[in-house]
Amino acid sequence: MENKKKILHYKRNHSTANTDVFENSKSSRFENDNDRLVDASEGESMSADYDLLCSVIDSIADPFAVIDISNLKIIVANKAWQKDDKLGALLEIHHEELIQVSNETVRGVVRPTSVDDAKNARMYRFEWSIVKQLKMDQKLLSVTFRGSHSEAAISLSAISSERQYKSILEHTQAIIFVIGQDGAFLLSEGKGLASLGLTPGQVVGRNAFKMYADIPDVIKGVRESLGGRLHQSVVEVGPNSFETFYSPLKDDDGNVTAMLGMSIDVTERVRAEKALVESEEKYRKMFESMASGLAYHKIILDAKDQPIDYVFLEVNDSFEKHTGLLRENIIGKRITEVFPGIKDSNFDWIGAYGKVAIEGISIRFEEFSEPLDRWFDVSAFQISKDYFVVSFIDVTERVRIQNDLKKLTEKLEDERAELAGKNIALKEVLSHLEEDKNSIKERITENVRDHVIPLIERIRGADHEQQDKQIDMLKRDLLAVASPFMQQVKDKFNNLSPRELEICKMVKNGHSSKEIAELLSVSVLTVHKHREMVRKKLGIKNSDVKLKPFLDSVGDIDSP
Question: In the chain, N or C: fewer CB atoms in 10 Å?
Fold first, then answer.
């Protein structure tokens, strides 16, 4: 059931026999605040309005009360009234007089009169006005007593009370106003009026609907409250912003007679809020437009304050691009819900981010995410206690290229080592070739010395016929110098003498023993002896192996 705003006034029956009618009233506030039934939607505004009214009533220095003149029931009284225990009896004494005077009083008109407290030698001046007429014989009067021994003191007291009440309204930083059902201002006070270029009381009597016809929120607030509903809004009036609370003022029957408004200048707050919104919008655009993936998290701790999980609070568009995860599927969820196997990863993601969120350290690292099968360059930093932001980029392609380069480098290194080994082998081959070249030079020199020179000497001493044969022999020997045959024979059978080697060369070249004898100027028998010795040294003596085929198997020599 919707509670209607209702204030239950403190009431107490008064009789002529009971002069301590107010002894149980401790303040102008109502006896039981719990009796104030306020709709939940009205909340703080109603409390503020109630406190304001009570403060205004209590600020009146002179005794003030609202009474039912028919039976002297007290509806509400301020502190000054409660302190003077003689006022109840004084009202009883002048009850009939008050009834007569009230019958002549027009509602809303203040009527002053004086009463004499002869017993206490005091004179009171009181003012009252009719605030409500319940029945023909029942009226509610607002009564203010000003007690003094002289009219001068009475006037001074009145002035003091009025100044105090006015001072409260004038010095409040807010704007306090009351508007009647016809839209006319009944009250307009407060220092806040200066920001509108107004002075207190300047607009009293003017119509609010006309004054603020171009500000719909003001018109709406006034109409809402005059219709019995609370309203609150922030409106701009010129360069200033005001937060205004509109409250209906009701009589005891629940009828709205006027509305009470309180406006607070919140220009600086509104500007700050706008700046904050603009700043948030700027950073939101930056957040969304960044190429790096961004994620805002809160760490989850166990009973021992150890990190066991973290929650996704916000992500940007690049996060979705780099991870393939949509924000609507992960916001508000824990990482263990998004990736159930995250705790089994090679890298301790929760532990690393826990240090960031708890200790406030910042970290950067490059790591492989098994669930996403991607490499990320990650930075993480604390925003506030237990809250952290992760910024990252996908470096999978770069890491793949780096790994390929690493493998290629390792392969090239292996090939370089292999080539170095081959270079060493080549150097050894070249070294051997150099040795072979030197050896060949030595062999040629040796062959020339052993074979060519002796033949030239024989040609020099031979006759013409023999010279031709010797020249042919010289030609063959020169060819033999460049041939490996002689060296091969010498290498394999190093026990042969130079003459025997020469005979081996001639036999290989197809010369008969007779021809050899003639070329060497020796007898055929000598040649046969040399041949026998060669066969013996070659290991083919007493065998069917012919000397020439054997020598052919040792090495070839070009024929002349």
Answer: N
Q: Do 219 and 212 form a contact (C-beta atoms < 8 A)?
A: yes
CA distance 497 to 490: 9
Per-residue DSSP letters for 424-472?
HHHHHHHHHHHHHHHHHHHHHHHHIIIIIHHHHHHHHHS-HHHHHHHHH
Alpha helices in 5-104 (DSSP H): 43-59, 79-83, 87-93, 95-103
Q: Find the mean pLDDT for residues 383-399.
A: 91
Classify residue 185 by its DSSP letter.
Answer: E
| Three-state DSSP state, 17 | coil
The model's pLDDT over 177-234, given as tens digits with 9 standing for 90+, comes to: 999 999 999 988 888 888 888 988 899 999 999 999 999 999 999 999 999 999 888 8
Helix-helix angle 453-461:464-481, to 10 degrees:
170
In this predicted structure, the answer to whether residue 326 has a pLDDT above a threshold of 50 is yes
pLDDT at 45 over 60: no
Name the DSSP class of 37.
B
pLDDT score at 11? 32
CB atoms within 10 A of CB 517: 18
Question: Which residues does 49 contact at the CB level (< 8 Å), separation at least 6?
Answer: 245, 247, 260, 262
Instruction: Write down the H helix ranges in 258-334.
Output: 267-289, 317-323, 327-330
* The Cα angle at residue 527 between residues 525 and 530, in degrees rounded to 5: 110
**Range 453-491 burial, b when 16+ CB lie within 10 A, else e:** eebeebbeebeeebeeebeebbebbbebbebebbbebbe
How far is residue 229's CA from residue 417's CA, in Å, rounded to a whole number? 93
Do the Cβ atoms of 507 and 488 come closer than 8 Å?
Answer: no
CA distance readout (Å), 179 to 57, 153, 203, 215, 454 = 19, 35, 11, 16, 152
Distance (Å, whole) CA 261 – CA 245:
6
Judge whether 351 and 305 are in contact, CB under 8 Å.
no
Q: Are 191 and 170 in contact (CB under 8 A)?
A: yes
Average pLDDT, stretch 244-258? 88
- Please state, in angstroms and rounded to a whole number, the distance separating the CA atoms of residues 122 and 225: 45
Question: What size, in residues, is the chain?
Answer: 560
What does the pLDDT read at residue 333?
94
Distance CA 222, CA 246 (A): 7
Q: Give the integer Cα–Cα distance in Å for 218 and 471.
A: 142
CA angle 80, 141, 223 (to 5 degrees): 100
Say how far apart CA 310 and CA 168 lie, in whole Å. Answer: 55
Tokens of 491: 């290498």
